[in-house]
Amino acid sequence: xxxxxxxxxxxxxxxxxxRFGHEVVAAVGDAEALVAxxxxxxxxxxxxxxxxxxxxxxxxLHAAVRLREERPALPVLVLSQYVQRTYASExxxxxxxxxxxxxxxxRVGQVEQFVDALAEVADGGTVVDPEVVRQLLRRRRDPxxxxxxxxxxxxxxxxxxxxxxxxxxxxxxxxxxVGKHIGSILAKLDLPPATETHRRVLAVLTYLRA
Length: 210
Prior knowledge:
Layout: E1 2-3, H1 7-19, E2 27-28, H2 31-41, E3 46-49, H3 59-70, E4 76-80, H4 85-93, E5 100-104, H5 111-122, E6 126-128, H6 130-141, H7 149-159, H8 164-171, H9 175-188, H10 199-209
Parallel strand pairs: 1-2, 1-3, 3-4, 4-5, 5-6
């Protein structure tokens, strides 16, 4: 089961997988179609992109996490242009931690390595791109290490339940400056815009956990 919004890459992967003896039972271009196709075809493994329509944020990765929650034994291999850490650790922890992989798309160009990774995940193994490992370990050390001292101050006041106006009064800055700090905080904590989550709350939770 293949999910990739780029028609060119989707067709290319379909041909590549067929060349190595794999049958692609369905190839779709968005996360909703992915979930529906898995229900219809019950594939042996899912290969999905992270960024997919309609928002081109983390829809594919979010769908993969949902699928693993509903079907813990379903092998899933995620391909991405970048490391989306919001859901990456959740994906790797899903099920019993087996039959799951997270590779950067650069690895697809290394055909034999990609096909070997696919087979390993399908057999219940775990495959994680070295860059993904580095970034996840960096986040687990201290998710707030990328914030400036001022940004930490802003986040601490938000964690106390302060509004932007209240934060501005406390720090003697403009509300516009507070807004810019918050935008920077969300970016540095890898919290992209999403319709199903409240990023400000997630930032506070990150602060409290740290």
